[in-house]
Every structure is written in C-alpha cells, then in structure tokens.
Amino acid sequence: MLRIHFTSEDLARTTIAPGPxxxxxxxxxxxxxxxxxxxxxxxxxxRQVRPNLPASTHLLSDLAPPKGYSADFMTPxxxxxxxxxxxxxxRSTPRARLRxxxxxxxxxxxxRPLRAWMKGLADGAAGELARVADAIDRxxxxxxxxxWTHVRAQVDHDRVRRSRTLAAEGWESVFATLHPSARxxxxxxxxxxxxxxxxxxxxxxxxxxxxxxCWGPPTTLLDTSLPPRxxxxxxxQLGWAGGGLEPARDLALPALLGRTRAGVLRAVAxxxxxxxxxxxxxxMPPPTASRQAAILRDAGLITTRRHHQAVIHAxxxxxxxxxxxxxxxxxx
Length: 332
Fold this sequence. Notes:
The strands form three sheets. The chain has a four-stranded mixed sheet with strand order 3-4-1-5. A four-stranded mixed sheet has the order 2-6-8-7. Strands 9-11-10 form a three-stranded antiparallel sheet. Strand 10 and strand 11 form a beta hairpin. The protein is built from 15 helices and eleven strands. The two termini are 21 Å apart. By secondary structure, the chain is α/β, with parallel strands linked by helices. The protein has helices at 8-13, 22-34, 39-49, 57-63, 83-91, 95-108, 116-122, 128-143, 148-169, 171-176, 247-257, 259-269, 275-282, 286-298, 317-324; strands at 2-5, 15-16, 183-185, 188-191, 197-200, 207-211, 219-220, 229-233, 273-274, 302-307, 310-315.
C-alpha cells in the first residue's frame, strides 16, 4: 500500500503536470515491452518497436529490471518537457546519486548481480553515465519518437479532464478517480503498491504526472527526500499504434455480441467512463447505453462501480481478452 500524507499546505501546492514527461514515458515503456500488461493496447506497438531496438537498450534494462525498483536517476526529479532536456539532466546526475541508486538496485534485486559497467557507473568511471544518457536518447528516438504526438495528445486530454474535475468538484474527486484502488480520507491518499511505502509531503506539495505507458497501479520514486511525484495511468484507445483490430476479429465481435453491444464494449475499452460519457461516445440515449452496459456487466466483460451520483464502467480481464482475440487465463 502506498500512503501519501498531506497537510493543508500540500493541497494548495499540489499540481497536475503540464504534459508527458519523456523520461518517465521511456522508463515505463521499457516495462511494457517486457511485461504483458495492457496487451490489447500495447501489442501492436511492441510488434513494431522490438525489431528496431538499439543494442544499447540493454544498459537501460540493467538499470530497470522487469519488476520492482529501477534506478531513480533515470527519471530526474524536475518535470522535463523535451527528451533533450531530460537526457542532459541524466548526464549531470551527481556521483552520490549514482552510488546510492546502484546500491539500492543491488539491495532490491539480490538475484541480479551487478554488471561490471554498473559498478563502474557507481564508482564514477568516466564515460559510463554518458553511455546511459546516449542509450536513453536512442531508445526514445526509436520506441517513442514516432508515437509522441499521440502520447502527448492523450496525456493532455487527461490533464484537461482532471482540471475540469478539480474546478467542479475539488481534489477529493481528482484523487478518487486516479485509480480504482485510490482511497482518499484527509489527510491520507492510499493506493495499491507493490510494498508498504509512506510519503510525508511536509508542505512540498505533490506533482500528479499522467503517463501514457503506466499500466496498473500508480508509481513513484522510492527516495522520499526527492520532490514528490505520483505517476498514474491514463485512458487508451484501441489501435493507437496503427494496427487496430485484425479484420476477421473486427467482424467476429459483432457477430458474437451484436453490433450495438460490440460498439459499447469497444467504447468502454477507450477508457473508464460514466454512462453519460458512454452514451456520448456512441451517440445513443443514456438509457440505451445503461441497458447495454448492464448486459455486458452480467456477462463479466465490464465492471461498474459507483462514484458519488455516477457509475463508472471499465473493462474486465475477460473483456480485454475478447477484444484482443485471445483466451483469458483462469483466475487463481
């Protein structure tokens, strides 16, 4: 469980990032490449990117294992608006930060011995930090650069939507909708997390960072002395990488569910939505959208949870699997 402790000053200083952070997106996309989470949304991107990965990507994989802690210096504490600024910030990482992060990496992943070059990085060997910075630059160019316009547009959409929620309903509603696990009871925001982790903001405020390649629960930096930032997932559109659904599958889904319910399922797959938002996406009356959503919920393809006076719909793993055209693994 992640617990973020606020004061009244922290609420006044909490902000939403002005756009995507290239270094956070680079780090999180590394996880998406190696893990299956979000398959229906990221599978086409993986297929396009993997054959073209630079050889130097292995440096980044060493610093960011498939699960758990990754070296904090890969995501500088100041919000970066361009990959150039981010790479330069990495190049200027203090030696003490490198030493501490590599030591933490070894402690958190005892089954992964440190490579010789990583020991050199921790010891301040000339050139090793430059190699990492160059690897980030090349990785971003291949894996994120071609898609950056879409990534930025989707993050901007999330920011605008949450800014409207903040203006209309306050921070309580913003926090409550960051993730299904979010629980806000002043002065503590609780969220699912791989381990117990407490952040006492102490008047510093919190930067909320929407992230395109974040999947699952929100994440943050391990070192609580660094400027606090909560990185959370945003909504996604099917086929954003250009692949879309295979033609046969695209025809089979309406045959299985009916055209209207297939359209509702795909609309929910664009991101969590209320019944009113679902109706707007499909240009249908809200009662019709509600009725079709109830049928999909009874079939186990979507979930519905209540938030204040509205209900919010989201895909279940079975719904994701159906859209992806693959069988769903049985729940343990």
